[in-house]
Amino acid sequence: MSTDTFLPTDVPPTRPSHKVEQLKPDLLLHTNHHLCPGCGEPLVLRELLEVVTELGAAERTIGVAGIGCYTAFSSAIDLDLIQALHGRAPSVATGAKRMLPDRLVFTLQGDGDMVNEGLQEVIHTAARGESITCVLLNNGVFGETGGHMTSTTVIGQRTKNTLEGRDGSYHGYPILIGDLLAQLEGTVYAARGSVHNAAAVASTKRMLRKAFESQLRGQGFSLVEVLTMCPTGWFIPTADGPGYLDDVLGTVHITGELKADGKLVTTAELRARSQERARRQSAPGQEAERV
Amino acid sequence: MQRLIEGSEAIADAAVAAGCRFFAGYPMTPFTELLEHLARKLPEVGGTCINAESELEAVGMAWGAAATGARSATGSTGQGLALMQESFSEMTLAGLPLVIFNMSRGQADYFQSTRGGGHGDYRHIVLAPMDVPEATELTQLAFHLADRWRNPVLVYGDYLLAHTYESVEIEPIDYGTLPAKDWAVDGSAGGSGKSRLVSSLGMSKDPKRSVDPESLWKDVAKRHREIEATEVRVECGFTEDAELVVVAFGTAAKFVRYVVRQMREQGVPVGYVRPISLWPFPYSALAEAAERATRVAVFEINAGQMIDDVRLSVLGRAPVVAIGGISTDASGFGVGRLLDTEIIRERIESALKGQEVPV
Ligand code: SF4
After folding, report:
1. Neighbours of A68 (CB within 10 A)
2. Ligand 1 within 6 A of A62 CB?
């Protein structure tokens, strides 16, 4: 089959798409969904399911879904799942993990779910060192309700209730949830990935694997925060999603490992490092450092 | 073996005897002792008790444990339970068994318990023990009914029940076999094409059903009609020939029953009805009792809540009067002066004479 069966995603579709290859992860029952073209959430879901398969953990995994656009996948994911209320996934996961300690237990939450509604409980779950992995899909908006400000919306970002852009003095400042959780003693692993390009997708998958592995070793709480595109909630053309993610959210919620092997790195330090890299790359005569 | 123990400890022992293996709660008077006892007793049998950071998380944890098929419970006073209502309602829709203890600060949580403070069409079975021995039985029954109906069951206690020492013997009670929990999520079905989803949203992994909240809500309503038809529990005394029927629930009912029995011995034509299940409410038992009575009196320690259900049962067959009222101690948690057999007797006598009782 030729590649012209792929549809361009920057214009409304004119005909149904065709599958050119078996791309469905093993742990997905079907690929029907109603998420928007250009959404970043399905990418993370794919990676998560692939990692569970690669770890051979499908028959001992319990997922707890929060409330967001990704919730629609609860009926398609071929894993034992519990649907939680908005914000409550970490406590529900705690109850399940305490009853079945040898299972791999993860939550799937958005930024509205984890950082707005459920902030208190994700902090306490991390502080207890609960051996679960919380996966945060962070797009800086309430996508499902139509693009409203969340606690991770960055300064200047336009949403339906920050029409002129988020103003710190009026709307408050974004929360860097990864930093908040990484510093707690019960957290063994915390990382912030992104899905704006292939390299970021690959690095996010490594983060998910590390987090799950630390949980399977029973070491404590782990967090994988992933920046995801939400062109609909950002009111931008679909094709601009990855660029906007990298330029707007990605310059505040800097990607990288925040806690690994007992070492804590702050977002500020990650920012300094990336600025240093950018400076060296732009300096003439110097060899670009591999990112 | 009979032991003289405090109500809170007896309830904790009964929960453990019923197979409860998960509890999460947040301290609050007069519920605190139940949490203390379970924190000590559950780990001894391989269970878990978590002192949660708030009521919201306590019920969330109990939700997760229940979803794995474990017998799970939480509790508080009415105030703390108010914070948990969103989860109670959703757990009911998700078909999850849960036992909830309300060690309430009086009887003013009748509406909260029987109507629920949460959203949507949902009901909880509510059991109201009058003393410690009955509380140990109803606690075990609560776990059985929760599993049988896949529905939360609330045990309505209070300060008096939590803090009274009585002599009880607690042995596991066999209420019969239950269907296997094939719906429970234990993590083992991943990749089989038959993995499970415990959801309150009407979502299903069956591609033919997908998202269908209407069918789910109808199923839940049907379940609740079946419960109404089968799970009414009530105690009636001397109602065959009573001129005045006194209705009371929980610990207050024990006082009322004592007074009515005493008056009967002296030939006064009074009787009592004690709803043991507050939902489903014993509407027909009360209707029958009211058929022969000239008056129905309600003794409850609140501004008048159960009286609504009594009126719905009696449906004008006899006048319904309130003879209870608001009554508490200085802390607002405990027992007020109304819970006194002499005062109750005076009020019953006034009601018999058709006199107004100041509420
Ligand atoms: S609204 Fe945003 S998060 Fe939701 S499906 Fe669309 S793109 Fe994805």
Report:
1. 22
2. no
